[in-house]
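hey so i finally got around to running the thing on that chain from the lab meeting. sorry it took forever, my laptop kept dying and i had to restart like 3 times. anyway pasting the input first so we r on the same page abt which one it is
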Amino acid sequence: MPQSDAAPAAAAPAPTLRDVVAILERVYDPTWAEPWDAVGLVCGDPDAPVRTVGFAVDPVAAVIEEALDRGADLLVTHHPLFLRGVHGVPATTFKGRLVHQLIRGGTALFTAHTNADSADPGVSDALARALDLHDLRPLEARAGNPELGIGRVGELAEAEPLARFAARVAAALPATAGGLRIAGHAETPVRRVAVCGGAGDTFFDAVRASGADVYVTADLRHHPASEAVEAGGPALIDVAHWASEWPWLEHAAETLRSAVAAAGTPTATGTNIETYVSTLITDPWDAQLPSR
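ok and heres what got predicted. didnt touch it at all, straight out
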């Protein structure tokens, strides 16, 4: 068989971490984050190449071990590892130990938190689309830009009873020990839906103003939920915090892949990267027993 004299094609150069962070910060602008939040690059060499990027909700030990095992050059998480300032990261603390593992393994860590909540599309868009909602708009829009903001309000194609809609929510989200908590009559018709990925019980005024028939969110506390019910609604569906934000991961991964492939980067035009979404359940609860 004749031998080809053509040299094998050289692999496309990988984008640098600096390149990838620039893309992520265009999509999830850090100026959209709440003042108390901590977003952006936590650790990593900006000049290091990035070929594999993992996405997860929580930067916990199991997720970081998974990233190292999979050879991820970058791990993108929704929740910050450090929400408050620290004076050091010694390996004698559990968070410091995680930072040391990441650096030794060559895996950078990047956080997109409340800036991803406010983005369009963002965390609540992914939750709304998982529930087949359309005509989405922010639940609480940011001043100066009505397309951005926390939560989303959308419509079902046709009304359905609350019990059927709750089953829709349960089927759309990953299973957790806590499952769903529901406030409202099973036959209440549901057409307009408000959602907020993560803790959402500070937005009841906006939910009522939206005219939503039901509000899907997480971490509902007793008093705000009780007052919302006493005020005449809407119906409530309380889901696990982690589960409410998990649908965003694939959206974020696809956004990054598309941006790198289409626009390229200053050091690697038109290249591709691989991504994966962690399926590890990082909801903190392991079991639930019904009370008697």
